[in-house]
């Protein structure tokens, strides 16, 4: 069947209307005329797995990356950046039912501080779009920047010199599984983490990355396709550092950090502008990204986070920056009294706030809530649930993830005066 792409779905796929049905077509732009050759079903949606571009839309631009369209990493490089931001603005505004500005990313290439490169029998690169087993072989990743080429070249030399096998996910055979590259964009420090199956790694491994600040070897004994494992050894520094404004953060292979450092600076700055009063709860605090930044600005911060390792990292980050914030392991819904805080910051996973936490917020009634979200849908749902007692005073989108459909949002909720 043939037709013209009408608009993009929330997931960033082109929508082609076929009677009352919709076919989602990846890597297309509104106005593209396409011919669908093959489809597959995914969770009640019909997705084109093979199609021909008959007449390109004049909205299109030339993607910078040579692997665009094959690689599963970016979905929107063929759409000019201003148009990507306009689309994210429309999406966020629609979900929140008001006009919301989206702040563009300060950089749209070289902005990612982390890539997880799969080492597989089909290639060294990223998963091929629409597959879980295949990989697109890459020499560089423009979204990460120049250093990716250097690390991938060193890795290939190392593999060739020692004739090391690549992992075959379908057979659970082979040795090398992933190489994770992380870079402190404001410090220039580099971490390389090689993830393997159990086995023997040649001792010369770190010699291939003399320019890296920190080199790790992790082992993933399981069959799950994850890019982390138990730390076997490291060479050089145990952590690399990243800086957001005047705050320094430590990065470890097994800890999360906001992936776009250039925009993360704006994120922490904006959150700190919205915080009111003195006592702040940083809920879902992770490695203390917000908490430590706020403590440095004189706020009295307590952080709560479910992952003990992240809490350990947050404590280290507080010490490193000479601030007094406290961080504890805990669950969102178990916080004792939310009215002990002037402002509660929440930055939950994509699923949004737990219903019991929402009940607790409505019961305890902290005056100010700063809700940071990476999922407009669950954010809108939660804002609606809190609307009985809280007014949405301010909302801002931040594009942390250029060329992907994702958008980060910050909202300020104020309790109605009784
Ligand atoms: C989106 S991340 C926020 C990270 C942090 N704000 C940052 O910028 O680095 C969500 C965090 O919530 C934590 N988390 C998930 N479920 C939780 C729960 N039930 N209670 C507390 N923390 C939880 C995760 O471990 C993760 O660190």
Description of the structure:
- The protein has 418 residues and is of the alpha/beta class.
- The chain has three domains: 1-60, OB fold (Dihydrolipoamide Acetyltransferase, E2P) (Beta Barrel), CATH 2.40.50; 102-106 and 260-415, 3-Layer(aba) Sandwich (Rossmann fold), CATH 3.40.50; 114-242, OB fold (Dihydrolipoamide Acetyltransferase, E2P) (Beta Barrel), CATH 2.40.50.
- 21% of the residues lie in helices and 32% in strands.
- The strands form four sheets. The protein has an eight-stranded mixed β-sheet, with helices on both faces. A seven-stranded mixed β-sheet has the order 10-9-8-11-12-13-14, with helices on one face. It has a six-stranded mixed β-sheet with strand order 1-5-6-4-3-2, with no helix packed on it.
- The structure holds S-adenosylmethionine.
- S-adenosylmethionine is lined by residues 256, 258, 284-287, 289-290, 305-307, 310, 331-332, 347-349.
Which of globular, elongated, flat, extended, rod-shaped describes the shape?
globular
Which consecutive residue ranges, at least 5 long each, have pLDDT under 50? none
CATH class of the largest domain: Alpha Beta
The share of residues in extended strands comes to 25-35%
Could you give a short account of the major beta sheet? 8 strands, mixed
Which small molecules are bound?
S-adenosylmethionine
How would you classify the helix and strand content by structural class? alpha/beta
The number of distinct helices, counting runs of at least 4 residues, comes to: 7
Give the name of the CATH superfamily of the largest domain: Vaccinia Virus protein VP39
Strand order of the largest sheet: 7-22-23-21-20-17-18-19
The helical percent reads 10-25%
Quickly count the domains.
Answer: 3
CATH topology of the largest domain: Rossmann fold
Q: Which architecture of the largest domain does the CATH hierarchy give at level 2?
A: 3-Layer(aba) Sandwich
What is the H/E string? EEEEEEHEEEEHEEEEEEHEHEHEEHEHEE
């Amino acid at each position: 069947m043939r037709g013209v792409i009408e608009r993009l779905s929330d997931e960033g796929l082109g929508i082609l209307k076929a009677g009352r049905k919709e076919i989602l077509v990846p890597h297309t732009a509104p106005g593209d005329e396409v011919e669908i050759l093959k489809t597959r079903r995914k969770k009640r949606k019909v997705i084109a797995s093979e199609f021909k571009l008959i007449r390109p839309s004049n909205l299109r631009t030339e993607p910078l990356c040579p692997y665009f369209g094959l690689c599963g990493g970016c979905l929107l490089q063929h759409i000019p950046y201003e148009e990507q931001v306009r689309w994210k603005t429309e999406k966020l505004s629609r979900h929140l039912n008001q006009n919301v500005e989206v702040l563009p990313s300060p950089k749209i290439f070289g902005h990612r501080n982390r890539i997880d490169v799969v080492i597989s029998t089909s290639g060294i690169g990223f998963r091929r779009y629409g597959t879980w087993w295949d990989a697109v072989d890459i020499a560089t990743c423009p979204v990460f920047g120049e250093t990716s080429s250097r690390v991938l070249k060193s890795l290939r030399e190392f593999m060739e010199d020692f004739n090391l096998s690549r992992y075959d996910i379908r057979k659970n055979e082979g040795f090398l599984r992933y190489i994770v590259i992380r870079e402190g964009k404001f410090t220039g420090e580099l971490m390389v983490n090689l993830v393997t199956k159990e086995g023997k790694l040649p001792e010369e491994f770190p010699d291939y990355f003399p320019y890296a600040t920190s080199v790790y070897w992790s082992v993933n004994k399981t069959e799950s396709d994850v890019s982390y494992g138990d730390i076997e050894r490291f060479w050089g520094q145990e952590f690399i550092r990243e800086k957001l404004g005047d705050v320094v953060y430590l990065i470890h292979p097994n800890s999360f950090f906001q992936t776009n450092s250039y925009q993360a600076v704006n994120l922490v700055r904006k959150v700190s502008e919205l915080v009111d009063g003195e006592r702040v709860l940083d809920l879902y605090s992770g490695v203390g990204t917000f908490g430590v930044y706020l403590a440095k600005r004189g706020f009295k911060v307590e952080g709560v986070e479910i992952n003990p390792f992240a809490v350990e990292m947050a404590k280290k980050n507080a010490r490193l920056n000479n601030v007094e914030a406290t961080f504890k392991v805990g669950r969102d819904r178990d916080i004792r009294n939310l009215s002990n805080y002037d402002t509660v910051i929440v930055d939950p996973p994509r699923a949004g706030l737990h219903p019991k936490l929402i009940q607790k917020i409505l019961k305890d009634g902290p005056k100010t809530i700063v809700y940071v979200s990476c999922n407009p849908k669950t954010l809108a749902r939660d804002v609606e649930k809190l609307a009985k007692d809280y007014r949405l005073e301010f909302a801002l989108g931040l594009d942390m993830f250029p060329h992907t459909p994702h958008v980060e949002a910050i909202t300020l909720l104020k309790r109605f005066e009784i």
